[in-house]
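ok so i was messing around last nite and threw this chain in just to see what happens. nothing serious, just curious
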Amino acid sequence: MTAAPGQPDQPELPDVPELPEDFEVPDDLSSLGGTPDPALAALITQVADAEALAAACSLAGIEIDAVPTPVGALAILRDRSGEAPQRAAAAISQVVKAVPLILVTRQGEQLTCHRYLDGADEGKLPRAWCWVVRPTRWRTC
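result:
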């Protein structure tokens, strides 16, 4: 213990190791607790028509709400439990051959995007690929 004259004794602090350069504190700490299932799971596709996407999902046994956009249809997945979003993305990307789709999941405030092609997860996309799309009309299958 060391203390300046007239000051009470204070314990010495231990040496604190330096943090690695790639250490990152997440923006959203919600993933540390609560349910592991995402609050939102959506497929961004290049399928031109929401009704066609709804039909393809129905044939694959996947329940969605299809949303038209000017650049392709979105599939909002109803089953977000466990690995259901990943299985749905793989199944739909096999139905719509040679056309990539993006699986977007949201847990808390964190969006995660994965690219799928021909049934395979081609990996996580950088954060810049994650964006919000406002639906105009809902189609249900």
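not much to say yet. The helical segments are 50-59, 84-95.
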